[in-house]
Amino acid sequence: MIDSKQVWTGCGDYATPSWLKEGVFGGWFDPCPLFGRLKGRKVDGLKMEWLGTKVFINPPYSNVMPWAERAIAEARSGKTVVLLLKHDHSTKWFAKLHEAGAVFLAFMTRLSFNGVDLAPFPSVLVILSKDLCSIGAGDSVPASEKRSKKKYGGKK
User: Which domains does the chain have, with CATH numbers?
Assistant: First the structure.
């Protein structure tokens, strides 16, 4: 049995709920396995190649920034990347994802991680794709919105 106090005060690694990992994102590449172990061996998902065109990441919540930066780069190269994160808009990584044109889908209820009580924080899915991340530096309007505004006479 997992002690819920250890889960919420630990290193920031939380097991993705199985209904989400195997159900919704089954078959997606995961470069960030729980505790950094894949098939019994230690891996560094930030240094490895991210395989396929669809990537799902539940990074350690204690160090999200490098995962957010890599996710943005991978999305700009043509992959669809989804991150499961704490919903904390006060962080630098959240701002960086927002500036990159990410779409944020907040869960209406708290998730249960590691098969224990509900998390003491809200969660969000962050979606990045090439079309969403095609905005330029300092630009806050995705390219797709610019096109539609020109087409229908809206203001820039």
Answer: 4-151 (3.40.50)
